[in-house]
Amino acid sequence: MIRMVNLLELSENEIKAKLRKGEVRVAVFGLGHVGLPLACAWLKAGAYVIGVAKTERKVSLINEGINPLKDEPTLTPIVEKYVREGKFKATTDGVGAAKEADVIIIATPTSVKWNEPGKPLDLSILREVLETVGKGLSRGNIVIIEPTVPPGTTLNIAKPLLERISGLKVEEDFGLAYSPERIMTGHAFQDIVENYPKIIGGVGPKSSKVAKALYEVVAKKGVIVLSSPTAAELEKVAEGIYRDVNIALANELAKLSHILGIDFDEVRYAANSQPYCHLHKPGVGVGGYCIPIYPYFALHTASRFNLELQLTRLGRIINEHMPEYVANLALEALAKLNIRADKAKVAILGLAFRGNIGDTRLTPTLDLIRFLESYGITDIIIHDPHVENNPTKYPLVKNLEEAVKGRHVVIVATDHNEYKGLKPSKILQLSKLKRIAIVDGRHAIDFRENVGGRVVYVGVGRPWTIL
User: In order of start, what are the domains of the chain with their CATH numbers?
Assistant: First the structure.
């Protein structure tokens, strides 16, 4: 095809007008939890979108107008509409998609090697996609990197790689910017389009101009342009570290509350009435491919300069310890019931890493299970109304009665709405046992109900209570 748009030569108003008229073609690499919502946001802004996926199955689903992300129901009518209108297609041909596009968005995952010592960086997918994009890059294009990355990635990895493979020069022939995704699974499209400003960091003034103009059409809350892609990369990492460290603080204070026989919810509510305090909630741990990963991006970057980020590292240690802490509470609960660990029957409520979604990536429930096993507890059943694919060897059921029946200990691991306000009397009734224990890792259970001393209750940040 003959390329009609050289974005670097246009004014901001011209860029916006062409996008709204459907004259800008966008290739989105990665059609997962970040990429597909992004593709839908660009479609709504007026672009023709080519989505690049790794598997033929996902490509086929999307080209049939089917939204493959059950956790993002908002995308369903958008995918259906724009596929039907011929404005959205998916492909596995990344080079072809790059050649066809004016704007190239990279939305593929980055991570660390979670089970290796030191958790080394894993940017292999990003590098692979950059090489593919480089082979299809043309003059006038702009490449925008969206996944969270270690600060310095755009300038030190993406820029030289794209220039070497394409033979083009950034700022002269093509634009390059970093613009971090700022989404939460379950309402990702709304986060992009309605909820937050878009952060932009271009490698130079032309790149910043183009990225700013494009995203001002996409994001209703506007665009914040930072001085460099590295500043934008650090901004995104900082968002995640703030939450991780705050959760770690909440977990520490919750442990202290438990020892003092105090309900941490009471303390948190009172403390947060002061505008300078914003304590987060404690829990079983921190999961997903966001908050647990971002601190390691910062730690690896800092280590290159012999800088030790002590608070960041300590926050990770505390949060990664929480599944073990909850497993210990379960072990104590069994002791109060006079039941040996190897004879215990345990139900875990919640396999997803967060409430009301089916995403199990880095869910702390998996670590909780490993610690329970290390104590000899192997008769485990899991309940989760949202999760479809079970990454464990234990039964995963949808029926609460099936999960709880005959279980000595019930552990609440995820804050699904289905568990909030659940009565101990109901759990006891479903268990069919005379006496049970509840370990509430998400403060979901009404622990003030009196059931005649038949329930041993404890929560993360709550005292031992006989209900």
Answer: 7-227 (3.40.50.720), 314-466 (3.40.50.720)
pLDDT tens-digit profile of 192-205? 999 999 999 999 99
Parts of the chain with a pLDDT under 50:
1-2
Average pLDDT, the chain: 96
Please give the Cα distance from 324 to 228 (Å, whole number): 41
Give per-residue pLDDT as tens, 66-95: 999 999 999 999 999 999 999 999 999 999
Q: What is the CB neighbour count within 10 angstroms for residue 54?
A: 17
| Token pair in block for residue 383 | 């309940």
User: Tell me, what's the pLDDT at 87?
Assistant: 98
Q: What is the 3-state secondary structure (H, E, C) of the chain?
A: CCCCCCHHHCCHHHHHHHHHCCCCEEEEECCCCCHHHHHHHHHHHCCEEEEECCCHHHHHHHHCCCCCCCCCCCHHHHHHHHHHCCCEEEECCHHHHHHHCCEEEECCCCEECCCCCCCCEECHHHHHHHHHHHHHCCCCCEEEECCCCCCCHHHHHHHHHHHHHHCCCECCCEEEEECCCCCCCCCHHHHHHHHCCEEEEECCHHHHHHHHHHHHHHCCCCEEECCCHHHHHHHHHHHHHHHHHHHHHHHHHHHHHHHHCCCHHHHHHHHCCCCCCCCCCCCCCCCCCCCCCHHHHHHHHHHCCCCCCHHHHHHHHHHHHHHHHHHHHHHHHHHHCCCCHHHCEEEEECCCCCCCCCCCCCCHHHHHHHHHHHCCCCEEEEECCCCCCCCCCCCEECCHHHHHCCCCEEEECCCCHHHCCECHHHHHHHHCCCCEEEEECCCCECCCCCCCCCEEEEECCEEEEEC
Which residues are part of the catalytic machinery? 236, 290
